[in-house]
Amino acid sequence: MSQFIANYLKKVQAYQPGEQPKPGEYIKLNTNENPFPPPPEVSKIVENYANHLHLYSDTSCKKLTKAFSDRYEISTDSVLFGNGSDEILAFCFLAYGPDCGVRFPTISYGFYQVFADLFQVKQEKMPLNLDFTINPSDYLGAMKTVLLANPNAPTGLALSLVQIREILEGNPENIVIIDEAYVDFGGESAVILTKTYKNLIVTGTFSKSRNLAGARLGYAVAHPSLIQDLNKVKYSFNPYNVNTLTQAAGVASLENEAYFQDCRDEIIRNRSYLAENLQKIGFSPLDSQANFLFTTHENLSGPFLYQALKERKILVRHFDENPIENYLRITIGTREQMDVLLLKLEEIVEESHA
Ligand SMILES: *Cc1c(COP(=O)(O)O)cnc(C)c1O
Predict the structure, then answer these.
(1) pTM for this structure?
(2) Residue 327's beta-bridge partner residues?
(3) Are 285 and 302 in contact (CB under 8 A)?
(4) Atom of ligand 1 nearest to the CA of 109
(5) Which ligand 1 atom is the nearest neighbour of the CA of 108?
(6) What spacing in Å lies between the alpha carbon of 85 and ligand 1's midpoint?
(7) Pairwise CA distance, residues 254 & 345, whole Å
(8) What would the pLDDT profile of 164-178 be if each residue is shown by its tens digit?
(9) Residues 27-70: pLDDT tens digits?
(10) Of 150, 139, 153, 223, which is closest to residue 188 (Cα–Cα)?
(11) Is the pLDDT of residue 354 over 80?
(12) Ligand 1: distance of its center to the CA of 43 in Å?
């Protein structure tokens, strides 16, 4: 840091992304990316659009908005796109954080804390239940913006739509944001509720279930009045926030629904396969509705397992943070990747008995 940095920034702990090693060096199960490439149509985009890159991208994301609103059966003025859903969440903090503050769980997506610090928004963190579930009644009558990931990260546990509705009913005076980064892997989407509740914002991303993490594309779905608020932030910050290639990749993804479903179904199958086989060697994975498993072992510590896997060229995520220090978050990959992972874990468990 230099001596010139603003005072408030000195105290901000920046987000620590999972390690990004050289391609091929590790089996990479640490950042919840999709193990499958984007649909084949995406590979033509660079060629087709290279000649358009001298012009600014479409600030209104017109084609993408049309394709998305058709697919999700919403009106075109109910959606806004961002440079990843991280940017959408930043817009939400800027629009709905300053006056009332934000309430979110102690164990959740790490970026919530970072944004609250960066934008100097008051934060109230609610502990999870002992079984890592979220207690909906902790979020009633909040009088501040409520922010929940559903399914939650890094647990993978999901609230039902009935519980989300209960939270919405209990917060008529403030905004409720449901971050659905992982919803396609088994959760129930609250997008449908945005037609009824004018205080609900649902955010989502093309990074996980749509195989486009590197393209950076996220969205918010909400009542048009809320989308106008978020647009005000966007046009005050970066009107060209979604680049031309990414807009086209998003359209291509939405146009190949079969590919999306095939990849998702395979990941859900691999998740069950991994969970079953982990249980046989002393692990207790939580009941994940996401593209990762959050798991602890009956007698091996989190840091030990993380390190032992890394030595065997497999990267998973470990959070050095009470009460989850003995848990690993393992991204669901291809069947082959899951088999190598299981083989290495069996080896590690064996060796530790010797
Ligand atoms: C991955 C993730 C995001 C951000 O995704 P982007 O790549 O920025 O679209 C947001 N929320 C949660 C809970 C996530 O896990």
Answers:
(1) 0.97
(2) 296
(3) no
(4) 13
(5) 13
(6) 6
(7) 37
(8) 999 999 999 999 999
(9) 999 999 999 999 999 989 988 998 899 999 999 999 999 999 99
(10) 150
(11) no
(12) 23
Atom of ligand 1 nearest to the CA of 218: 9
40: phi then psi, degrees, rounded to nearest 5: -55, -30
Cα-to-centroid distance, 350 and ligand 1 (Å): 36
Higher-confidence position of 352 and 331: 331
Give the full edge-to-edge strand order of the sheet including 102-105: 79-82, 218-222, 200-205, 176-179, 145-149, 102-105, 123-126
Token readout for 281 is 């060697």
Q: Say how far apart CA 317 and CA 296 lie, in whole Å.
A: 12
Atom of ligand 1 nearest to the CA of 87: 8
Helix then strand count (H, E) for the chain reads 11, 12
- Residue minimizing CA distance to atom 12 of ligand 1: 181
CA 208 to chain centre: 7
Check if the beta carbon of residue 255 is closer than 8 Å to that of residue 41. Answer: yes
> 65-124 pLDDT, tens per residue?
999 999 999 999 999 999 999 999 999 999 999 999 999 999 999 999 999 999 999 999
Q: Which secondary structure element, helix H or strand E, spans residue 7, and what is its range?
A: helix 7-10
Could you identify the atom of ligand 1 that is nearest to the CA of residue 153? 13
Which residue shows structure tokens 């817009």? Answer: 91
Best residue among 109, 134, 150, 288 to mutate for probing ligand 1's pocket (most ligand atoms within 8 Å of CB) is: 109
Sign of CA dihedral 305, 307, 309, 311: negative
- The helix (run of H) or strand (run of E) holding residue 96 is helix 84-96
For 22, which DSSP code?
P
Residues 6+ apart with CB under 8 A from 178: 148, 149, 150, 164, 190, 200, 201, 202, 203
Q: 299 C-alpha vs ligand 1 centroid, how far in Å?
A: 31
Q: Which residues line ligand 1 (CB under 6 A)?
A: 84-86, 109, 149, 153, 179, 181, 205, 207, 213, 218
Atom 1 of ligand 1, nearest CA residue? 181
Helix axes 62-72, 244-255, angle to 10 degrees: 30
